[in-house]
């Protein structure tokens, strides 16, 4: 076969390239046609080919992790006594306080408004300069709040989210990125006061299971299907993507999804036992040296 790059004439190079391309395509079609004929007469051959040609996915190529959760008696026993058991067993209604770091910018207030719209029974409290985290935690406990969200910022842009479960923790801190407010999403719908349904995807390890339960405890137990809204937290390679939609019923047979917004991405940085404490014990903390492989994930 003639090497194309050895031909100096541009028109000749293009002509030869097109001939070789067409020949490869014809050869591929011929192989596919022959294979179809063989498999139609021998179905077992097709079954064998499909069994062997398993595509690589994030899940089947990830490194083995002994902490991946299976639904068994041990997991059920742990969940019966963990920090979220009151929510799951006693039907505790979430009550969330949202606040900010000190001296927040306008963009942080905008994002806080979006969070208040996402989670039912949520209250925004403006943080005064003299309020330290221990004061906010005591304030929230005394008023029966179940969770606190603190929006952190850097260079006047939201860059972190700290989630504290009350009264006894745990506390999780996430890097916050890729924020897109509802107003910036083309064709976004209008939200209603109906309680949303939560969908969690791929929170498979012990750590991921804890984070999933932490998010679940922010939403009411029984979603309202009349004005059905769906909040989705999808974990992919330890990045948690948030999206929110509502169902639009065109007729009895046709239902569309309309995005409501906002969009944002979270990445867990640390998980701490108990409520927020700068000197407290960490259950888990991300460190760069933990990234030993592109196929190793923690959630």
From TrEMBL:
Which domain of life does this protein belong to?
Eukaryota
Which regions are flagged for Basic residues bias? 21-31
State the name under which the record lists this protein: Brix domain-containing protein
Q: Which organism is it from?
A: Linnemannia gamsii
Sequence segments annotated as region (Disordered): 18-57
Organism lineage: Eukaryota, Fungi, Fungi incertae sedis, Mucoromycota, Mortierellomycotina
Brix domain location, by residue?
94-277
Which Pfam families does the entry mention? Brix
The record's InterPro entries line, in alphabetical order, gives: Brix, IMP4/RPF1
């Amino acid at each position: 076969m003639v090497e194309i790059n050895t031909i100096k004439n541009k028109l000749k190079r293009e002509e030869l390239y097109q001939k070789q391309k067409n020949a490869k395509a014809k050869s591929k079609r011929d192989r596919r046609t022959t294979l179809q004929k063989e498999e139609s007469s021998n179905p077992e051959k097709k079954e064998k080919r499909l069994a062997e040609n398993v595509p690589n996915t994030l899940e089947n190529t990830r490194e083995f992790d002994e902490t991946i959760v299976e639904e068994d008696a041990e997991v059920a026993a742990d969940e019966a006594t963990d920090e979220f058991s009151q929510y799951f067993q006693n039907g505790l209604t979430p009550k969330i306080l949202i606040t900010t770091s000190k001296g927040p910018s306008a963009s942080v207030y905008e994002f806080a408004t979006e969070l208040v719209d996402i989670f039912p029974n949520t209250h925004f409290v403006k943080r005064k300069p003299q309020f330290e985290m221990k004061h906010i935690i005591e304030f929230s406990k005394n008023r029966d709040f179940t969770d606190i969200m603190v929006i952190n910022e850097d260079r006047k842009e939201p860059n972190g989210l700290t989630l504290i479960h009350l009264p006894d923790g745990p506390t999780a801190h996430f890097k916050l990125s890729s924020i897109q407010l509802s107003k910036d999403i083309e064709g976004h719908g209008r939200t209603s006061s109906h309680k949303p349904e939560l969908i969690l995807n791929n929170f498979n390890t012990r750590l991921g299971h804890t984070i999933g339960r932490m998010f679940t405890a922010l939403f009411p137990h029984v979603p309202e299907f009349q004005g059905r809204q769906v909040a989705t937290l999808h974990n992919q390679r330890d990045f948690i993507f948030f999206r929110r939609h509502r169902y639009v019923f065109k007729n009895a047979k046709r239902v569309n999804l309309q995005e409501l917004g906002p969009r944002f991405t979270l990445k867990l940085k640390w998980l701490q036992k108990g409520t927020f404490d700068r000197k407290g014990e960490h259950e888990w903390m991300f460190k760069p040296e933990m990234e030993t492989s592109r196929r190793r994930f923690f959630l």
